[in-house]
Amino acid sequence: MPFSLLKYGLKNDYPFENDIDLPLPTELKKHYDVVIIGGGGHGVATAFYLAKYHGITNVAILEKGYLGGGNTARNTAVIRSNYLTSEGVRFYKESVDMFKGLSNEFDFNIMYSSRGQLTLAHTDATIRSFRQRAEVNTHFGGKTELIDPQQIKELVPTLNMNPADMPVLAGLWHMDGATARHDAVAWGYAKGATQRGVELHQLTEVTDVIIENGKAKGVKTNRGTVSCGCIIQAVAGHSSIVAAMAGIKMPITTYPLQAMVTQPVKPFLDPLVSSSALHCYVQQTGRGEIVFGGGSDPYPLYNTRSTLDLKESLLASAVEMFPFMANLKLMRQWSGITDMTSDYSPIMGLSPVENYYLDAGWGTWGFKSTPICGKSMAELVASGGKVPEIIAPFAMDRFDVFRQVNEMGATAASH
Amino acid sequence: MGTSYSKKAGLGFADLTFTPIYHDKSYLFHDVAVIGAGPAGLAASLKAADAGANVLLVDENPMLGGALTYHRFDVAGVRAAELREQLTAKVRHHKNITVLNSATCNGWFTDNYLPVIQGNRMYKVRAKQCIVASGAFEQHVVFRNNDIPGVVMSSAAMRLMTQYAIKPANKAVVLAGNDDGYLCALELLKNGVEVAVIVDMRSQSSDPLLHSAVIEKGINVLFNSTVYEALPSTDKKRLAAVQVHAITGRGKVAATGVTIPCDLLCMSAGYMPVYQLLCQAGAKLSYDDDSARFALTNLPKNLHVAGSANGVHELDAVINDGELAAYTSLTLLGLASDEPQPVTCNKQTNFPWPIFSHPKGKDFVDFDEDLQSKDIVNATRLGYRDVQLVKRFSTVGMGPSQGRHSALPTARLVADATNRTVTETGVTTARPPFVPEKLSHIAGRIFNPYKLTPMHQKHLELGAHMIPAGIWQRPAYYGNPIDRDKVVQQEVEMVRNAVGIIDVSTLGGLEVRGPDAAEFVNRIYTFGFLKQPVGKTRYAILTNEQGVVVDDGVSCRIGEDHFYITATTGGVDAVYREMTKWNAQWRLSVDIANVTSAFSAVNVAGPLARKVLSKVCFDVDLSNESFPYLAYREGTIEGVPIRLLRVGFVGELGYEIHMPSLFGATIWDALMAAGSEFNMKPFGVESQRLLRLEKGHIIVSQDTDGMSHPGELSLNWAINRKKPFFIGRRSVDIVMERQQTRKLVGFKLSSESCRPKEGHIVLASSDQKDCAITGNVTSSEYSTTIGANIGLAYVGIEQKEVGCKFPIRVDNGEIVMAEVVQLPFYDANNSRQEVI
Ligand SMILES: Cc1cc2nc3c(=O)[nH]c(=O)nc-3n(C[C@H](O)[C@H](O)[C@H](O)COP(=O)(O)OP(=O)(O)OC[C@H]3O[C@@H](n4cnc5c(N)ncnc54)[C@H](O)[C@@H]3O)c2cc1C
Where are the transmembrane segments (chain A) (predicted)? Predict the structure, then answer.
């Protein structure tokens, strides 16, 4: 469905006067209080909250491609908070709560749809870890429980209960699981930010970071040099490359991550369903397409090519889970570049360079955290570097002091 | 098309009862793969094959010939058929050419890896050179009501007439932006269709001969004119007439026009290369606004383009272009052939601006998604100026045809609205597949490999309840799941009091041999192995670079330069991968082999184990003195060579017997027979888990997680920090210096208390509101031996002391208090496994 239809119905004469989502491009100014590198969801959300909550509007978002064209455009929009660690659950739960109010906050429909997310267990080891996740979630007020095969059948009648000869023994049923229109999230934030005076510069690539006496002073771009009070980098898959411009080495390895989608069919699958043993998750979008995703590619690479190998293994698993899908037609396959940390948690907060803030390490799981991330980064910047408590566990130096926040088990099967 | 299309077809129903049918995969290897069997592809195939290359020619149609099968290239209308005959006859008989027709090359993957779908099979083709001669898609004209049935591309009408012998209408109008419209008109006439008029958007035809040919046949031509609106029949189901207006400027028309009745409108406004495969390979599509021509550049080295996909539309030039692509491929293959002439072609086929937006709309740009020109322009006005954003905002190009007919008008409209060129605007990224493909083609044969131990059948006969363990099946216990608790306790009692046998064939087995074997093992595992004596075993822990415990096993030193090391069932493949990865850097002189499936193993455990073994194994002195705890020996059972490890995992006298898998069942039978007089029976993994829990032994992955450091697991004794290096050493050192935050402890609850389940969480205090989570239960079971509920759990560091009571939250939010106890729960001084 065209987005305009949602917004304007069948009216013929849109757009109305003054109802412009994104202003026309302008020249770069010489100086900004804040420069945000990366116009993905995270970058524009940070700008939005800086403007809205902190009155900081002399802000430029510099995006080398188009708004939200990185992983924001490529992700499969799983929103959930059923992680394993206390630090993780608290953080993601806050984000899920914020998501619920976004359409209203923007006056822009982000098509938030709360469907519930179901993860399948095929071994007793998985049941153990699911029980733990359900308990941790419940502890922080989330709605997650361990359910039995009978309940699974009722939730997803079309599911094969013995995929790949691995009987479904139990499920982790996360009622807060949801999805939203990924692009619209970026557009809503961008609209709100630019309306408040923030400048969004697309086709503007940061090529170097200017540092004097250990302090971030500005950036060089393909459109000229800009000085600034501070810099936030929010470039997802390019974190190591951009950080290197500031002389920062990141504990990140970069892998492609792929996803694919079928032609649209009438809705039949409400919850998001995934199986860790089969490395596959399946969900149906509002348009009716079935989306498939799985694990990252097995080797590090900066390339958004698709591979046949992944398509074969992923769809073999999908057909195991839902045999009748063998007859559906795949329409598109794509990939994004993800910056993975060894503990599957993000890197947020201060960096070794003064006035240079990091929002990175979002790997395969950063869409769902867009609101809380933007809000916390804005708070961090507005306070001049006081790290908000909710993101403190994700500081980069946790790798030096071995205080990782390990979410590997809770991230492998679904993002 | 249009509105009704997406309501009816765009959102079809999935058949939820469909049962997959057989599909398979096959592999092909060729010097040259040619995609598309039109004149360019045929010419390229012949030239390459003549020079000795082994050629694969792929076309999605049943009939070879591409445009030659329907297009008209000359006034007389004879050239196409003659040429097709001539070329396809040669191709069919050429020994170097394999033809796959009715076959779609549905993607381009790195290094010319091509999935070709034909029938129920997907060929996976590896081609040294690939020539894409995929042709061009004819493009529609944007005007009001261009979605009414009866408005078609000229090439569609031509196909109906030449391939299916269908007369498509009675009275046609041709809307031309190039000379192909004239050829279409001639073909219509030949098939008995009256051609009311050729409406030419240009000021003159390129080829004067064609113009006079149609005039001669009595067809009227209106220059500088366009169809501004199509008018539907009264029932709105088909075309009744077209409204023709004079063109007054780019996309502009005169206020009034003439109405011409017709039941068919053929559009010939231009072509867009079938660029999908090429762009998947990273090619750049550029468009020259003045000549309205496309070009594809930036192709990878071994990929070539030819024919109308390459912007060449004149027949002789197309053949020439195909031969040139073949020549380039042959040169790269090192095969000699004559160099063709450079290609010249001046035929202009694209009308620069075939878009006539109408104030009342219904001037469709995208038929799948029902998008009109204002939808595209308005997206840019709202601020979505990048063509990718236009796509995402409007959904243009997202339907089943994936932009085949909407990409060009969209690019033109966006370019115009944002003051850019079409090249600057670009088209959205082409992604595989080329056409929507059934999941079954990609999934292929449903094939789930699994492994069975040699004793599998015996377990089933003995009534085992089997559970998966990785890709293996293992007995959980021998009995009915309804009696699970009782059966497990009985099996445990049998091992504690007499003797039992367990199939441990799924244990990983790794052989490390060579002059540097000891050095290698010493670098991989945390313990010291340089001085491990031959004939002894040693506990082996593997940490990763973060210092986290990721696997464990037993290292047996078989000889000075020969180790046999076990690993966990689920971990062995990763361990093997790590070993080979590290040695790719270290370059030590060792040979590493994963012999997991080559060896089978059983563990005979219990106070009577020696008695059982001595009945079948005569060539090893089994006495405690000469074969003590942790020793390694070799011998035979029934003439089969065996490896014997004296182990203690379950806490009783025990022998692990490893034998070649071929003889696994023989030795199992021999041992079962030997054990019968002692009432020895098999026991399963769940009983083994309880036995080892009573001894406080951890199971890596059950009692460890992604953060478990050796210190938290009280495994410091198995870490040799005097040696210079092991994987993870640096991290382990740092962690050891730091204050720990949690610890894995043994706990006990009275037998009346609710038993916590594995995965339940440990809290900082029993007042659960707002208190921190300090840990979790990893193992929990009722133990008859101890007479209590026992388990292992991570607790906060302040909760770790023996005697400390800590809260566990169990089902339904209830809290139970467990007490930390000294490990092991059973046989504290290990006398049962070591002394006897
Ligand atoms: C296939 C796939 C599926 C996923 N599924 C999910 C999911 O289901 N749920 C979930 O929560 N997460 C998911 N993710 C992860 C999620 O997409 C990302 O973590 C998230 O979008 C990151 O947002 P971002 O704004 O930081 O990054 P992006 O949206 O990638 O934005 C970063 C921007 O920085 C720009 N940039 C880079 N370098 C420069 C430079 N030098 N100068 C200027 N600009 C620059 C890029 O062009 C880009 O637009 C998925 C990712 C992929 C690839």
Answer: none
Residue of B nearest to A136 (CA): B761
Q: How far does the centroid of ligand 1 lie from the alpha carbon of residue B402, in Å?
A: 24
**HEC assignment per residue over B713-779:** CCCHHHCCCCCCCCCCHHHHHHHHHCCCCEEEEEEEECCCCCCCCCCCEEECCCCCCCCCEEEEEEE
The domain segmentation of chain A, as residue ranges, is 28-74+183-252+343-411, 110-176+253-339
* Residue B231 exposed, middle or buried by CB count within 10 Å (0-12, 13-18, 19+): middle
List chain A residues with CB under 8 Å of B444: 312, 316
Q: Which of residues 291-350 of A touch B (CB under 8 A)?
A: 305-308, 311-312, 315-316, 318-320, 323-334, 342-343
Q: Which of A74, A123, A127, A128 best probes binding to B when mutated, by most B CB atoms within 10 angstroms? A: A128
What number is the ipTM of this complex? Answer: 0.93
Q: Test B20 with A25 for CB contact under 8 angstroms.
A: no
Pairing between strand A347-350 and A356-360? antiparallel
What separation in angstroms does the CA of B146 have from each of B141, B235, B372? 8, 16, 10
Query: CA-to-CA distance for B426 and B386, rounded, in angstroms?
Result: 9
Angle at B616 (CA atoms; ends B613, B622), nearest 5 degrees = 45
CATH topology of domain A110-176+253-339: D-Amino Acid Oxidase; Chain A, domain 2 (3.30.9)
Amino acid A65 reads G
Which pLDDT score is estimated for A287? 85
Report whether the peptide linkage leading into residue B208 is cis, meaning its omega lies within 30 degrees of zero.
Answer: no
Count CB atoms within 10 A of the CB of residue A257: 25
Q: How confident is the model at residue B378 (pLDDT cuts 50, 70, 90)?
A: very high
A17: tokens are 């006067």
Can you tell me whether residue B696 is helix, strand or coil?
coil
**DSSP state, residue B9:** I
Measured CA to CA in angstroms, residue B320 lies from B207, B302, B564 at distances of 21, 19, 65
Question: In the structure, what pLDDT confidence band is assigned to residue B446 with cuts at 50, 70 and 90?
Answer: confident
Average pLDDT score, chain A: 94
* Closest listed residue to residue A374, CA positions, set A90, A116, A38: A38
Q: What is the pLDDT of residues B87-120, one digit of tens each?
A: 999 999 999 999 999 999 999 999 999 999 999 9
Show the CA angle centred on residue A39, arms to residues A38 and A40, nearest 5°.
Answer: 95
What DSSP string describes A334-360? Answer: EEEEEEE-TTS--EEEE-SSBTEEEEE
Point out which residues pair with B97 in neighbouring strands: B55
Q: Is the CB of A295 under 6 A from ligand 1?
A: no
What is the CA B533 to chain-centroid distance, rounded? Answer: 47
Take residue B70 and report the two structure tokens written for it. 């329907």
CATH H-level superfamily of A28-74+183-252+343-411 = FAD/NAD(P)-binding domain (3.50.50.60)
Residue-level pLDDT at B834 = 86
End-to-end CA distance of chain B: 86
- The radius of gyration of chain B from alpha carbons, rounded to an integer in Å, stands at 39
pLDDT score at B810: 95
- CA torsion sign, B245 to B246 to B251 to B255? negative
Q: A182-212, pLDDT tens digit by residue?
A: 999 999 999 999 999 999 999 999 999 999 9
| Per-residue confidence (pLDDT) for residue A11, from 0 to 100 | 55
Instruction: Say if ligand 1 is within 6 A of residue A70 CB.
Output: yes
* pLDDT 10s digits, B318-345: 999 999 999 999 999 999 999 999 998 8
User: How do residues B527-563 score in pLDDT, each as one tens digit?
Assistant: 999 999 999 999 999 999 989 999 999 999 999 999 9
Contact assessment for residue B252 and residue B158, using Cβ atoms and an 8 Å cutoff: no
* Beta strand A280-284 pairing with A117-121: unpaired
